[in-house]
Amino acid sequence: MAERSFATEVQELRLGAGEEFRGEGILAVTKGLLQSGVAYVGGYQGAPISHLMDVLGDAQDILDELGVYFENSASEATAAASLAASVHYPLRGAITFKSTVGFNVASDALANLSSGGVLGGALVIIGEDYGEGASIMQERTHAFAMKSQMWLLDPRPNLTAIVDMVEKGFELSEASNTPVILELRLRSCHLHGAFIAKDNRKPSFSIGDALANPKRDLSRVVLPPASFLHEQEKVNKRWPAAVQFIKDNHLNEFVADGAQDFGIILQGGLFNNVNRALELLGLSDPFGNSSIPLYVMNVTYPVIDDEVIGFCEGKRAVLLVEEGQPDFIEQNIQAILRRADATAKLHGKDLLPVAGEYTPAAVTKGVLAFIQKYAPELLDQESLPTSTLPVTDPRSPYAERIEPDLVQGRPPGFCTGCPERPIFAALTLAQREVGEHHVSADIGCHLFSINAPFNIGGTTMGYGLGSAGAAALNGKDSSSRPIAIMGDGGFWHNGLTSGVGNAVFNENDQLLVIVDNAYSAATGGQDVLSSKAANPLRSTQHSIEKAVRGIGVKWSRTVTNTFKVDEMRDLFKEALTSTDKGPKVIIAQSECTLNRTRREKPLIARRVKEGKRVVRERFGVDPETCTGDHSCIRISGCPSLTIGPNPDPMREDPIATVLDSCVGCGLCGENAHAAALCPSFYRTEIITNPSRWDRTKTSLRHHYIGFLQRGVERRLAGIDPA
Amino acid sequence: MTATITNPPRSAARVRPITMAILAMGGEGGGVLSDWIVDLAEANGYFAQSTSVPGVAQRTGATVYYVELFPKQPGAVHQPEPVLSTMPTPGEVDIVVASELMEAGRSIQRGFTTPDRTTLIASTSRTYAMPERTAMGDGRVDSSKLISAAIAASQQFIRGDFARIAQETGSVISAVLFGAVAGAGVLPFTRVQFEDAIRAGGKGVEPSLLAFAEGFAVAAKPAGMSIDISIGSRPDDLPSEGPDPAEVQLAIDSPASLVGSRLQAQAARIAAEFPAEARYMLVNGIKRTAEYQDVAYADEYLDRIASVTSFETGGDGSGILTTEAARFTALWMTYEDTIRVAFHKTRRRRFDRVGKEARVTDAQVMQVREFLHPQVEEISDTLPTALGRWLLRSAAMNAIIHKVTHKGIKIQTTSVWGFTVLYFLARLRPIRRRSLRFGQEQQRIDEWLDLARMHAVSDYALATEIILCQQVVKGYGSTHANGLRNFTALMGAVPVLAGDPRAAERLRNLRRAALADETGQQLQAALSASSMRSS
Questions:
Q1: Parts of chain A with a pLDDT under 50
Q2: Taking CB atoms and an 8 Å limit, are A132 and B413 in contact across chains?
Q3: Which of A13, A117, B179, B371 is deepest in the core (most CB within 10 A)?
Q4: Topology annotation, domain B18-220
Q5: Contacts of residue B134 in chain A, CB cutoff 8 Å?
Q6: Neighbours of B303 (CB within 10 A)
Q7: Burial call A108-121: b when 16+ CB within 10 Å, e when fewer
Q8: Smallest Cβ distance to B365: which of A132, A377, A687?
Q9: Which ipTM value was assigned to this complex?
Q10: Nearest-CA residue of chain A relative to B118?
Q11: Residue B286: helix, strand or coil by DSSP?
Q12: pLDDT in tens, A308-325
């Protein structure tokens, strides 16, 4: 069950024609799919499109009513291969995943799909992960579109434009027999806005129809000689068809064309930032009425030669605003203009940053440089936006107004109560005893170990590739062996074969720690094969240990409570010193605390309300005995274990203190024991609705303890003023 | 350049969206706050667009939510849709809300908060960043510097301890901040309209409205706080840390009033023999040592400080040598042994504090469990010298103790049995004077003070630095052992440094190196850099 429930939001999916939809971008896309008569949807979760999957998961009844098939694909490759249903049948299908990392995995299937082409519309919805907040390598989806020849849609970031592109995307795909990519920028996915809905449509051809009437067309199968024909078809038939459709349907937009003898070409997704830049320069208004000619490429691949040439005609110069590198579109347009002997000068990355996100500030600077070159008289030179001033200008927003040291980085980290933290605390303690090891990390929350305070992990090669990342470090004669980390999500995605199978086959001596928190937690708590909970729609509860043993692992242990730090530490030591050959696999199981809290909180609240006995736990630190050395924090890093003013009038260093947000996970106590820390930690158990026995016991204790305590205070009398 | 102005100045008459950035950390409800703003605006004649990057936001990292609001045209049937930005532009943000003080600093660093435009609404509370928390000493960033920077970098800085208000009202900080935004009067909506947005949300309405009202009151308060930054006065809205000035004054004028009947003689001695600046520390020192052992121990303490204070004539008149000696001698004399830990764990005031911290009501029952991990050394420490030595040497006893304690011991202090165990441990106090560790610590203290006295005449600053080095000895078990090792290395460096006019400064740098990491690597590096390695 996903971390976030969309039970209320999915009702928006039922809106009919003329009603106003209000909500998040990704939910709007989902509505767009239903309005387009989609027959099947698959995908693999990952920010920023996780919510698309979660929304569909929560909308099963609506999907059932419409006859839409939905699955949580095992990987992006699975999702991409599922589009094969649109090759022979007029079925509209959509898949979704996270930008380039998803494409890397999906590429094999998508290349085959693109070669043979599609009959039914095939839409790949991509959550771009570029710029601020991105969690992956900074690359462009554009390259994938070009290499397999899939059309790339990059609509303006408003919900009307995005939803419109979902529908147009299917039509374009069908008109040109080509899969289409709909690219949504990170912030567009989580953009709150509104659009006017249409009625949902049942698919005109259903999955059942396809199964009842199986079809086979050898010319669509990627095998010679058909594959050679496919390449010819791509350039001779599908490309011209796409260009015609794009032109006929005015997918790209022209604004204020003819207003000046220069202009700007931009990716649709950057429209709002470019308009903001023009607004700040006094050259547009809040409604996008630019006084500078704009050519808005809502389709960034293919580039429409005629439109580009037409736009550049009679212009001295154009500025291309193209985010990311390499500058594929700029190269493409240069070639188009050269071939057409056009006289307009093309600017782009000479005036704009070569790499990095095109924020409004970055675009403003580039557009300003362009206008200064061609029409400085249009600008009010006295009041240019302050963001364009040099940093040395005191009016610049970047002028140093705060000492740099006062602001420290705050990367994401393990949550309070996270069961992965004790794994790394134990690994830290084990390494203190048996020495430092090479650690190959993976993708997932566990990657937060690379930051302070654990500083564990040297490389991360991709999802589920933690074990494979340690493959070459298999020193047969070495006294040390590598440690690899993998999450349950990555394990089922590909790690079982790419990592564990590989290690077995090649007799790799690594210690592989599989972090099993019962969900694909980093992407929002979606279920995986080994999830503990029964899921009415999916088959869960498949054991990871059985899987690794099935593939040939001899040495494997499952730890069912990662909070037993001393046991985990000893197990790590054993695995790192064992003389057994082959991979040593430790499956560290404990439920993701975000999901557990979400599951348990309402239940506990109900029990309290019903008058049932409920025990709440939290930790504390005694200020009298804490000496402020913070060694407890250095092996935990828990957000709830922090520092506070020292109440001792003689001490100055802050003491460790536990915040109210403590969930009593027990790690502080376990660490205090396992690392032989200080005696300042205690656990408080608060019993709500105590039983009669609780009360009696407490009363007896109270009298006994009170009696002894009074004696102590008598001894101390005369030290403090009366 | 000859600028022909054809357009009106961009500041004039141009309708621009209201821009608002919310800086928060994952799990703090920044999303809730931006949702309320959107609901508020949409319900009251505005277009609203908000964006965020929730992947990061879920998991305690710093994140920015961004909202733009644009007025609809009153009465128009067809509303043209404005083009709103998905990201803040530095220098163009009207309102910045920060849930925490360093995040307010980040908004300045990123150029979102600027003096020409921005109303900055921030909580003065701190959520410490990792380096601040993991430092071996005090690694905290100076909050007053953050506040001063925020005052200078914003057009208007509205602040309060919004986190505390949230806690007190049993709500979340987003509700308090929403109230502060309303109270600041920077959005074109009425208080009732703000409150309706909370009601429309439907979750935790009552506590949210209460928190909202408190936040509103803080922000609506007329700006009466005039803070002269140039003279560096502490802004009055930070929780004060350190001693109460009234009590410090009382310690100077009348130390006797701060102690009980049994310490009157000692208090009189403080008034008679010691510089005024050191008296507050001394008063606390005699109470601490007397509580730790007995009144005679407090006398021994004063004797030790008296031997140092005679060197004040060579000082700068600040009494710093005496003050710091009074501090660190008291801390060292009351070193953390099992008896002290047991004593503090069983005191009544501790029981009260734990209950308050856990917000235990009369209808609830509380139990407290300790996590102890006594090492052989800590047990032998408490035993009489001969017995302690034997225990340390005995392999058999070592094995037995290891077997019992290596997994740690959990003791329920609130149970009869658990309390009794700790109570009797605390009652071992009289035998402490005869224990192995007591003898060792007294010897170390005397050697340390001897060293300081030896240099006090010729180099007062170096003597003070020697005293301050005690700071590196902290904690329990291996942490304590590491600290002691570093301390010994520092003391070993003193004879080499003595005579150098920069000796005090060099020792200070070595002390900082000792506090830079747990393993003592930086200290060893610093020592070998100045070829002072003690080996």
A1: none
A2: no
A3: B179
A4: Pyruvate-ferredoxin Oxidoreductase; domain 3 (3.40.920)
A5: 452-453, 630, 633-634, 637
A6: 10
A7: ebbbbbbbbbbbbb
A8: A687
A9: 0.93
A10: A397
A11: helix
A12: 999 999 999 999 999 999
